[in-house]
């Protein structure tokens, strides 16, 4: 005879972030294609070319975003946002390290959330949670609070470079020049 527990055991692990294998990969590939980027799948267990963090994190080389099915969606969207936010000159020599200023990094995080809203089954709320789960760090303590209350500089940067319109909607354009880039 087996004994049944009277209540479920407590959850001892953190909730998982959304992985590529649980998303509409066609919708993701089409979103990336709007920006001239291409999703390239890597076989399970293989190293991901151009990955800055290693393990299952997305990689970026030229116009290719590399991922495995166990790659977190937030990682793919972050690297895609780097691709979109960098100058054409930096994209031409891109291999692993996207570089850029602190302000550009903030813009990348902001754009990552906007792109998540373009994908079925992902959305902004899921991206906020996954970014917090992975360990993104913002002054106000959460991605959601930063996005709503402290990201004016990132939003303005995206607008100045033509990546969002005045209403905050993505334009489908990539950054083409270093114009209007403040120092630091």
Distance between the termini: 68 Å
Strand arrangement in the largest pleated sheet: 1-3-2
Briefly note the structural class of the backbone. mainly alpha
Please give the radius of gyration in angstroms: 18 Å
Could you say how many structural domains there are in total? 1
Shape: globular
In the predicted model, the low-confidence regions spanning at least 5 consecutive residues are 1-14
| Helix/strand order, N-terminal first | HEEEHHHHHH
Q: What order do the helices and strands come in, and which of them pair?
A:
Elements: H1 25-34, E1 38-41, E2 59-61, E3 64-67, H2 73-85, H3 88-92, H4 102-116, H5 123-134, H6 143-149, H7 152-160
Parallel strand pairs: 1-3
Antiparallel strand pairs: 2-3
Helix pairs in contact: 2-4, 4-5, 4-7
Structure description:
The structure is a single chain. By secondary structure, the protein is mostly helical. It has one domain. The chain is built from 7 helices and 3 strands, in the order αβββαααααα. Strands 1-3-2 form a 3-stranded mixed sheet, covered by helices on one side. Helix 2 (73-85) packs across helix 4 (102-116) and helix 4 (102-116) crosses helix 7. The N and C termini lie far apart (68 Å). Mean pLDDT is 87; it is low at 1-14.
